[in-house]
Amino acid sequence: MGVRLPTILGKAISDTVKTLNEESDEERIVDLIGCINRMERLMKDLTENDVLRPIIDDGEGDIPLWNKEITQFFRGKDFMSAPWVFAEAYKYRRLHECFSISKYWKDYDVFFRQKCETFSRSADAVFELSTRFAIPFSLGKGLSAMQKEQALKAMFKELTQICLWGNSTDLSLLINMSEEDIKRLQSTGGEQLAATEKNILGNDIERLWDLVKSLDKGRIDFVLDNAGFELYCDLVYADYLIQSGYASVIHFHGKRLPWFVSDVTRKDWEWLLNS
């Protein structure tokens, strides 16, 4: 964490400087320089392992909760002594604060460019998946009830695992990932899935299948994680659930602000659908 978080923040600062160099409006430039200065202060706090301070009131609804938790449970804690999940989430909220108190850059996503570039390097996996599922899902004629269920279950298990392993390219964990790493992690072939199933520590796919097959045009909610290839897998999965009749409505839930580098925001969602 002492290396990974500063590396992530350093890339975020570099991204913002690149945007600054592309900007021509003086007011927006001055405003963005203020954001960069706040990011550099956060970097100093992080590298010097400073005490977690309260979040500045930027008018957002989560401020009372954040500051209550800091005061009640983490008073005097620093980045390394606070529980790592809280400390890491705190870093992303502080990073959002760097922009949320600005005038022109409140919704700026320091990770958006990185997410787009990673997805562009996922072309092989996207092509493989889109080719395999290009034809709308349908059951063959003359199948018995048992054969139909077996076919549905096989497709369900395959797509569930594809979605699961789509998570392997979480950019908050893989800070120096090569194109070959991406291709290896995103392989969706049947043999690859069979080989990696043994690596699932808590495998509840059977229980999940029992639940899903009991649905009849119900509602299924997706709590989205990573943008790019994983989100693409989620959409393929959702399409299967609709076509198979298990769901008639799918609700997708993303993050309201840039979070853990690659988590899906509305901007990521719209970018993928329009790409």
Shape: elongated
Q: What portion of the residues fall into strands of 2 or more residues?
A: under 5%
Low-confidence stretches: none
Q: Strands across the major sheet, in which order? A: 1-2
Count of beta strands: 2
3D structure, described in words:
The protein is mainly alpha-helical. 56% of the residues lie in helices and 5% in strands. It is built from twelve helices and two strands. A two-stranded parallel sheet has the order 1-2. Helix 2 packs antiparallel against helix 4 (84-100), helix 6 packs parallel to helix 11 and helix 7 runs antiparallel to helix 11. It is elongated and about 70 Å long. The model has no long low-confidence stretch (mean pLDDT 89).
